[in-house]
Amino acid sequence: MQAATMRLNQNTLLLGKKVVLVPYTSEHVPRYHEWMKSEELQRLTASEPLTLEQEYAMQRSWREDADKCTFIVLDAEKWLAQSGTSEESCMAGDVNLFLTDLGDPSLGEIEVMIAEPSCRGQGLGTEAVLMMMLYGVTRLGLTKFEAKIGQGNEPSIRMFRKLHFEQVAVSSVFQEVTLRLMMSELERQWLLEQTSHVQEKPYRDGASEPC
């Protein structure tokens, strides 16, 4: 049941004002692979560099993973600019939800990466997180969110604080802080207001067309 739930997003496109969220497909792997050659991104995401073949294998495993939900973040302005634009040319980053606490299926760990340098500092990450939280609340039944962020990643920490997350733990071993948001009725209403413009549309691999 959980596996079916997490693969629910494989046919889902979420359209916002600044970003478009689409499922992570093989079309996106080459650009993603180029991003992850960056030592800065490896450090911020605690990732090891992979070969292109390993990256394709990772994409397939993510697609089938029972406890992970991944969307690629597209720059909406580029995506809407002209029909037929390839998604790879519009890619800005990714946003993920992990359901890894077997004792609490209502808790999702959320992370976002705006990897394209030209797309940073424009609010794309903020909208991507809000849209992913909306998806988690309305489609996956989540009521709590956590974000684990490297202590040196001040921009990301500030962003999550602005989204009402509160720091609950610091790990000197992993050099990361844990922030949490409990979705009370007030927070749920706030989230729905912040994302009232978001549209959910059907998605087909590599065939998302601006409407």
From TrEMBL:
GO terms assigned for molecular function: tubulin N-terminal-methionine acetyltransferase activity
Keyword Acetylation included in the entry's annotation: no
Keyword tRNA-binding recorded: no
Superkingdom of this protein's organism: Eukaryota
UniProtKB keywords: Acyltransferase, Transferase
Annotated N-acetyltransferase domain residues: 19-166
Annotated Gene Ontology cellular component terms: protein-containing complex
Family statement drawn from the similarity comment of this UniProt entry: Belongs to the acetyltransferase family. GNAT subfamily.
Annotated protein name in UniProt: N-acetyltransferase 9
Species of origin: Bos mutus grunniens (Wild yak)
